[in-house]
Amino acid sequence: MHEGFLGLGTSAWPCADEKAVTPFAVAGIPYDGAVSNRPGAREGPQAIRKASRMLCDALHPYFACTPLTLMSDYGNLQFPLSDILNVRAALEPQIAYLLARHHMVWLGGDHSISLPILRQLYKQYHRPIALLHLDAHCDTWTDHFGEPSGHGTWVHEALTEGLLLPRCSMQVGLRSPASETVWRRLEAEGGLILQARDLRNCFSGLDWNKKLEPFRQRLAQAGNPPVYLTIDIDCLDPGFAPGTGTPEPAGLTPNQVMSLLEESYDLNFVGIDLCEVAPAYDHAEITSLNAAYFLWTYLCGQIKNPNR
After folding, report:
1. Range of the domain at 234
2. CATH code, domain carrying 221
3. pTM score above 0.85
4. Distance between terminal CA atoms of the chain?
């Protein structure tokens, strides 16, 4: 048995005792075959688990709770060393199994893992999903240097497949080079975009409430649909997250991401993934520590979520 998130042991796969199913669960998807720059995100799940050990002995300082007794860790999903289509085909039944039993936290891996998760959420809820997407990159490219699918195409693919509610989706922290057609893709379909430069003076809960209000209004108008949260760790400035494959300067701070998580905890979240932690490029584990802290905060927020 390997050490899991927050120091838990990893559970048997699949769960042998249905009576012991917890409300929340963690699983890793250590795939980085779709990266366009530096590889290494396959090591992200274990680095995040290791960094999370220091968070297991007390309560969250804002939410005043701990997820320890309400969660389990399934270790890493199994998939072949193959092309991305076969990898996704192997992942989707496992993802479906876990989604049917838990509110899931997924540890990437590169960001291409979000597409099979969204496909299964669409099947589970029989409707498109709202998306809150923190990233330096828009991930709406139509190809990856000639490849039809990669870690920068999954939002384009999800929109094309009708998995998302564009008007109820928002991207936060975008700042990478891209053509206007590419980086405005979600906006062109009715969604919201907060570029990193729009957030340079946004730190407090009050600041974030103002930024979130249009998103909240759209969700309310749509009947509060399921919301999926995905965090690419490169939403952070490289000074706070050097351990990632495609770092982009002038990004968010950990304080900004924490304020966003704290102020949005009451949305109708149905899961989260955190991707692109590449520990080979990290320094003093600061990237993994930030990732672990964000996921711990998300879990504690969901425990307190009055709408869950």
Report:
1. 5-304
2. 3.40.800.10
3. yes
4. 31
